[in-house]
Here is the input.
Amino acid sequence: MKTVPIADCIWEIPPTEKAGMRVPARIYASETLLAGMDAGVFEQVTNVACLPGIVGAALCMPDGHWGYGFPIGGVAAFDAQDGIISPGGIGFDINCGMRVLRTSLTEAEVRPRLTELVDALFAAVPTGVGARGFVRLDDASFGDVMREGAGWCVRHGYGWPEDLEATEGGGCLPGADPAHVSARALARGREQLGTLGSGNHYLEVQVVPPGGVHDAAVARALGIEGPGQVLVMLHCGSRGFGHQVGTDYLRLFDGAMRAYGIVVNDRELACAPFRSPEGQAYFAAMTAAANTAFANRQVITHRVREVMSRVFARDPRELGLSLIYDVCHNTAKLERHVVEGVARDLVVHRKGATRSFGPGAPDVPAAYRHLGQPVIIGGSMETGSALLIGTTHAMRETFGSTAHGAGRTMSRAQAKKRVWGESLMQDMERRGIVIRAASKSGVAEEAGFAYKDLAAVVDVLHRLDISRKVVSLTPMGNIKG
Amino acid sequence: MGFVAARLHGQIPMGRYEVLETVALADCALEIDGVDLDDLFATAARALAELMVDPATLARDVERHVDLAAPALDLLLFDWLGELIALKDVEGAAFPEVEVHVESGTPCRLRGRLAGGRLHGDATVALRADPKAVTFHLFRLEPCSGGWRARVVIDT
Here is the structure.
């Protein structure tokens, strides 16, 4: 497929490349990252460009790789009046996202107790297939979680009021309606609040390495003073509840889109007009799942504070365990963006992509409003992660969006053929990274070599000015499913 | 005759499945062959269970029955695998041993008997991935020279 360079790190696939493309497709990557992208990216991003009501271009971030429906790293905005909404543009793990907490601890303080800490976190946060959490919900209280998100948790003692201010959307997206959620989704999610899941989901103790601060002023505003400071990052989503919401509506849209005369290139892109009854029902259910994901991360945060308080025999506030930020990376949100000089209401789909709102933008916490929204880029368990900050340019270039991670370079099956989980864990421990996992094969799937070079991805984001480097983080301890 | 006993009397799925390693990098793409529809649906269930857990480490002390109907055979397969994924969360169990009877028609129907065990509470159970959902990406079910073939990408 023909890709035309139109600016530094921006490659365009013109609408003439595939029948039905309504807009160009645009891939954000260095030449090296572009060359390493699999064929699925090009096929999928051009399929997205064919969807009704798409505005501007179908986008793929530098961490992009072959997904289902949208590519991972996919961003597309649809007109809120004439456009569609698609579960395949959001993913089944609705509001999968990242959260990072600062601490006042240093590596020197944590290192001697690292194994004890990681073991305690592994015991406190259920991981892996079929795991159940400690929060018990009846139908009424589950409905409250769907409507209130992280706010429900804070109201029930699983968090601090200021956590909400440091969460995208305040930890609660408007429009959730439990009436549009199936009994099956309730049954799947009822006992999973506070569970991590498996795959690439993790809870990680991290440290700012020497030379890891790229913007000292912004880092300080985020509460990061310098190398040696320990942080805690977590990555998870809406668990079985969100997975079932996605399944229910994918199945519904698969039949319903015929009535609207919509034809898609990939059945996983099944969609409905956003303003249709089906589209509105999905938006209400998807929002309920997004709020449940915020609640899930909030309950895990509560567990982290309990564990660290116990291990270090200090109050969590003394440990400085405050939330820096929580970002979603699998959502569709109703946002207003200026397109060719005109403010438009758009349904912005981000699948494996993070919001990156700039200074002064709405929904950026007051403490950060002069800087922009914090952006959390999760890397592999071996190589580390990064904190960035949103930019004004992202508002113009990418509907206020950026990457979400390093992005895979090989499949899980390929990774498992190259390394044993047990030997990788031992090797990581020799390198000072303590890891506990419910599944040893799952560890092998997440080996660092299965991912792109995070620094290369972050460099592209910085060069493009769709988010700016603030801090790099390296892993000390990791728990996963 | 109990279900597990019935399995020992020749009702083991004959089908095969393969993981397609270069498709949908973060997910699990499966190509499944069965000598007939019953065999294909049973083999697909076995593949899904083996994605979740090493079946040799799982008890066989949970039995369930499943009845489904769908307007088309491929949707019946989608719903069947979706049902097994949902049971993983609702029951906390996986079911490596399955007996299925599929009826074509309008609607298509399925009756399945499942045998398996709980995923948690026994440290010797070797957990694998946590499948989230069946996708429609590259999804197909069609007759082939040896019986039936399906391609399914599971979000993991």
Notes: Chain B touches chain A through 43 residues (CB under 8 Å). DSSP finds three helices and eight strands in chain B.
